[in-house]
Each structure stands twice: as C-alpha cells, then as structure tokens.
Specification:
Length: 306
C-alpha cells in the first residue's frame, strides 16, 4: 500500500500526547490491574501483573492474575505459603521461574518493607526478579512517577512513528531516550501516555496487521508517511517451542502441579518423554535443569515442588 505523504509540519509533542491519551481513554481494554484513577491503584497488583506480563499476552494473564490476587491480596499472604504453591498457581503461564522470583520478592516486601511495594527505583531493583523495565513500570503505573516505560509493543510504535521502520530492532538503550522525548511533562499524563503507547502497539499498531486507519497518531507516523516501506531490521527468530527442552520441562512441571503428593523420579522422567523427545538425553537434561533452577526438589528419588 502506497499513500502519498501528507506535507504538513509535525504537531507539537503535547498535541500528539493529547491525541494518544484521548484515544486510550475510550479504547483501552478493561484490564484488571489497570487503574482508572489515581486512587484505584494497588501497587502490589501492579507488581504482580508486571511479573506475569513478561513475555506473555495480557489475555492469557487475566485469569491467573485474578486468581492470584484473590488468594494472595498482600505480599505477606504469598510469603506465608511454600514457594511450590506459587509455582503451582502459575499454571501454564510459562517461564515458571517468574513464580519463584515473585514469591521471593513477596518475602522481601513482607520482611523489609512492611508489606508495602516501595516507590523508589533502587529499592524496587533490590527485589528478586525485578530489572530496570519492571522497576520503571511499577514506579510509573503504581505511583504515577514520570519514567519512560518501553515494552515490545511500545518499541514497535516508536520504530514506526519516530524512525520510519516497519518493526523494531533489538532492544537498545536509545529506546528509553526516544520514549522520554515523547513523554508529557506532567507525571500523571506521562503514566497515561506510557500505558497508551503500549495499548496502541497491542491492539492497533500490531506486528503483522497494523490497523493504520484506526491509529490516533497516524498523521505523524514516519513509516506511514514514507509509504509503509518494507524495511524491518533483521532480528533473530525465537527457537521453536515444539520439541524444545522448554516443552519437555513443561511436561514435568505439569505432572507436579497436578499432584498434591511427591512423585518418583521415574514418573517425572516418563512424563517428560510423553509425546516424544528430540534425543534420548532430553528428559534427564530437562529434569536436571529444573533441579538447578530450584523449580523442583528431589530427595531420595522422590520429586516435589519447592
């Protein structure tokens, strides 16, 4: 599709922000962790959602998030239970180490922060499982502080809007600089803009079929203005899940989540092999990696969740 580029001076930053935020206020999905006003923000809920949303679509996260918050409404409630219960409740969200990290972070919050999620970035970074992105996201979305927050969806929006590229390159430090230049000065508007940019990338400026006719900031999009060039940077493709060690690890984890009692090593290895394996050593390799990651515990050939 080739559209003639509109010859107009780009509108100021605040007008772009106005258009995006106005769209967000009427089009945003009603996600359960998302605040509709400053008084409705629960920092613990925001932190839980950010752990769950890492590499996982929001639609998959919602039922797990709602069950998690209902069961563990405060960090201390989660910390009081064995880590294995967090892993069990994580279900099929994938990357179950996130459940262990969240359990450890909850214990830190209960013991060191009076059962409260801290606002300070350095304090957030001291929690298990929290890196720079999650720290900024919690500070911005839970407390309304002005920080650029850039996830996969936001990076794609910036790539097209600012750089005229069909897709984003690998993550780079300049992503934060790009977002900081777009961010409104007022902290609460900055929070809305961060969330709106993510939402735009998730439901309009999508990777495969962007709905440019529905985009509230299409007039300023460099990629659209250039005629939608096929100039996506080359990136490494993610390894296939089918037949991978991740899939085999998942079979073992599924068995242990279903069982309220420990299972034998033989049963765990048999579960790993169900559905076929890539090589004969794969079940044992997957089993050993789960032991190393602390996701399963073995004692006298009996295996259980931690």
């Amino acid at each position: 599709m080739n559209e003639e580029r509109e010859s107009k001076t780009p509108l100021p930053q605040e007008q772009l922000a106005d258009a995006l935020i106005e769209w967000f206020e009427r089009a945003a999905r009603p996600l359960p962790w998302r605040a509709t006003s400053a008084n409705e923000v629960d920092p613990w809920a925001v932190l839980v959602s950010e752990f769950m949303l890492q590499q996982t679509q929001a639609s998959r996260v919602i039922p797990y998030f709602e069950a998690w918050i209902a069961r563990w409404p405060r960090p201390s409630a989660l910390a009081a239970e064995p880590a294995g219960e967090a892993v069990r409740a994580w279900g099929r969200l994938g990357y179950p180490r996130r459940a262990l990290w969240l359990h450890r972070a909850a214990a830190q919050l209960a013991l060191e922060f009076d059962d409260q999620v801290p606002r300070d970035i350095d304090a957030l970074l001291a929690l298990t499982g929290i890196g720079p992105y999650t720290a900024r996201a919690v500070a911005a979305f839970a407390f309304g502080d002005r920080h650029p927050v850039v996830d996969t969806n936001t990076r794609r929006v910036i790539a097209r809007l600012v750089h005229g590229q069909a897709a984003a390159a690998a993550p780079r430090p300049s992503d934060l600089d790009d977002m900081a230049q777009l961010l409104p000065e007022h902290p609460l508007r900055a929070r809305e803009f961060n969330a709106a940019a993510m939402e735009l990338g998730a439901i309009v400026c999508t990777a495969r079929t962007p709905a440019c006719s529905e985009c509230p900031i299409a007039s300023w999009c460099e990629w659209r203005g250039s005629g939608y060039p096929d100039n996506a940077p080359r990136t490494r493709r993610q390894a296939a899940f089918q037949g991978s060690d991740r899939q085999v690890r998942g079979r073992i984890m599924a068995l242990l989540r279903r069982s309220q009692e420990p299972v034998s090593r033989e049963a765990a290895l048999a579960a790993a092999a169900e559905g076929g394996v890539r090589d004969a050593a794969q079940p044992q390799r997957a089993f050993d990696s789960l032991i190393t990651d602390g996701l399963i515990v073995e004692h006298d050939t009996v295996v259980r969740l931690p």
